[in-house]
Write a structure and sequence with these properties.
- The chain is of the alpha/beta class.
- It has a single domain, classed as Metallo-dependent phosphatases (Purple Acid Phosphatase, chain A, domain 2).
- 19% of the residues lie in helices and 34% in strands.
- The protein has three helices and 13 strands.
- A hairpin with a 2-residue loop joins strand 10 and strand 11.
- The protein is globular.
- The two termini are 21 Å apart.
- The structure holds nickel (II) ion.
- Nickel (II) ion (NI) binds next to loops.
Length: 170
């Protein structure tokens, strides 16, 4: 199963559209969004996804109630701070990442095969303690060499059968 992973979309509509086009082209079966959607009004763009989207709140999500309402209208979900899901025998944890200690605790807990976080806007894929740790970066405002940029945003696709992930430029 392929899973789409994204974060920190921060209202950039054209970047969200490009990310969704890519996920649809890759035929992902679920998209996990690691937070910082920001405006509830940008949620309508996610309606064009061919699969369900599940999100967690990030530090810039000031109106989770409205975000949750708008997401539920398109069949999506918003969880406060943390979400976990089991797919087959793979356990996945999702959190925004503004508390690095929380991300570290999830990795070290032994309870998850995959830990996803965003917040830094810097894409990375690594293995720590036999856990696949994915930061998809930001589809909207990627940070390259310490500088916030516009364009060349990133998303990730997780292949649960191979237990590998790729960063994709949008
Ligand atoms: Ni953030």
């Amino acid at each position: 199963m392929l899973m789409g992973v994204m974060s920190d979309s921060h209202d950039r509509i054209e970047a969200i559209r490009a990310a969704i086009d890519k996920f649809n082209a890759e035929s992902v079966e679920l998209v996990l969004h690691a937070g910082d959607i920001v405006s509830p009004f940008s949620v309508r763009e996610f309606e064009k996804l061919n699969c369900k989207i599940v999100c967690v709140t990030g530090n810039n999500d000031g109106d989770p109630k409205a975000l949750r309402k708008f997401l539920s209208k398109i069949g999506g979900e918003l969880w406060d701070v943390f979400f976990k899901i089991e797919v087959g025998d793979k356990r996945i944890a999702l959190t925004h990442g503004e508390w690095p200690e929380l991300v570290e605790a999830l990795i070290l807990s032994g309870k998850y095969d995959v830990v996803i976080n965003g917040h830094s806007h810097e894409a990375s894929i690594r293995k720590q303690n036999n856990v696949l740790v994915i930061n998809p970066g930001s589809c909207s405002y990627p940070i390259v060499n310490g500088v916030v940029t516009i364009g060349n945003g990133t998303i990730a696709v997780l292949d649960l059968d191979k237990m590998s992930a790729n960063i994709l430029k949008i």
